[in-house]
Amino acid sequence: MAKLVIANWKSNPKTSADAKKLARSTDHIGVVIAPPFPFLSEVGDVVRKSDLGAQDAFWSDGPYTGEVSVNQLKGLGVKYVILGHSERRRNLGETDAMINRKLKAVLGCGLFPVLCVGEGPEFRRAPKGAASFINNQLKLGLSGVRNVKKLIVAYEPIWAIGTGLSDSPKDAARVAVMIRGRLGNVPVLYGGSVNGGNVAEFMSLPEISGALVGGASLKAAEFKKIIKAAE
Ligand code: PGA
């Protein structure tokens, strides 16, 4: 089965010209490009094969200064919405309750939520602690959600994000199995320092449905290696 690769550009690149160039050169079936909000429309115009993703979404239209609603994103052609990324949870005060509201709004609009979960460095060598931490994120993030047909989970151990220290593929696969044990047959992606060198090993495991890629998705040549490994 082909794997899904999501490019999480975070707050990059600086200009829309650079965004369009990068999107054009990594446009590929099975790839979701998640640029920052200001570039969504232009990236949507240049890609032919990739799907469009957003890095967050707010649960409502209306008087919420600075927020971007799920409806607005849908109108731009967004299909996937990353939710609960650890950078938002840790640095921007995003709570499980907020993520849960956003997730319900995304599902309500018929889009695919990509729910990010993952333990911090305190549980790095403590699989039981990590499992219970992740289970709690799933429980709270999915509270009241019955239909998980469109749900995608991204397992991203926090200590592996942007550090060059990826998880071992075997450990990531174990977590994916645990997540499916709880939720049923949902796709589980791995994220955290995925690059052209380590991606093949992750993609070779049937438990891992694809990758959520940060830093390496900004380098076209590197990202193309990742796309190739996922085919
Ligand atoms: P990274 O980021 O690939 O740069 O580690 C992954 C992510 O933050 O989703």
Bin the helical content. 25-40%
Identify the overall geometry: globular
Estimated radius of gyration? 16 Å
Bound molecules: 2-phosphoglycolic acid
For the report, how would you describe the main beta sheet?
A: 8 strands, parallel, barrel
Note the total helix count. Answer: 9
Order of helices and strands: EHEHEHEHHEHEHEHEH
Structural class by secondary-structure content: alpha/beta
Q: Would you count the extended β strands for me?
A: 8
Mean pLDDT: 97
Beta-strand content estimate:
15-25%
> Ends: how far apart?
8 Å
Strand order, main sheet: write it out.
1-2-3-4-5-6-7-8
Taking pLDDT < 50 over at least 5 consecutive residues as the criterion, the unreliable ranges are: none
Explain the overall architecture.
By secondary structure, the chain is α/β, with parallel strands linked by helices. Helices cover 38% and strands 16% of the residues. It is built from 9 helices and 8 strands. The protein has helices at residues 16-25, 40-46, 70-75, 86-91, 96-108, 127-141, 169-183, 199-203, 220-230, and strands at 4-8, 31-34, 51-54, 78-83, 112-117, 152-155, 188-191, 210-213. An 8-stranded parallel beta barrel has the order 1-2-3-4-5-6-7-8, surrounded by 5 helices. Helix 2 (40-46) links the parallel strand 2 (31-34) and strand 3. The longest helix has 15 residues, at 127-141. The protein is globular, with a radius of gyration of 16 Å. The mean pLDDT is 97. The structure holds 2-phosphoglycolic acid. 2-phosphoglycolic acid (PGA) binds next to strand 8. 2-phosphoglycolic acid is lined by residues 8, 156, 161-162, 191-194, 212-216.
